[in-house]
Request: fold
Amino acid sequence: MRRPRRPGFIAALVAVGLVLSGCGSDSDPDNWEEARQGDFAVQSNYLKACQEANDGEGGLNAATARQFCQCSFDRLYANGGDRGLTFEEFKALDDALRENPDPRRLSDEDRDTWRRYRDLVEACESDLGA
Reply:
């Protein structure tokens, strides 16, 4: 039985999807390995946005928010494909959400990626009892 989602959970998912915009560079990373390197801020932007969206009033305590965000990032980049999203899928979803932050209004392909992303994040929420 699926547990009801916190009211801000979808908003938090949108916030954590919008991380490439903070890179501010024409030379964005091309793959997860580059994205995790210090030259690019993808991982740190993701973790910061996720923690800000989930920490505080009505959200998670700081320690649980950190665990939740690290879990979701780890699942997100887990080799793409079956266990996560490819970096190309992640970038496309990031672009789509910046253009239209309402996941219900995404294209079919982006909505499918959104659902896969949401499932990865919800698995962390479930694992941590968030």
In short: Confidence is low (pLDDT under 50) at residues 1-12, 21-25. The two ends are 16 Å apart (CA to CA). The chain has six helices and no strands. Residues 9-128 form one domain.
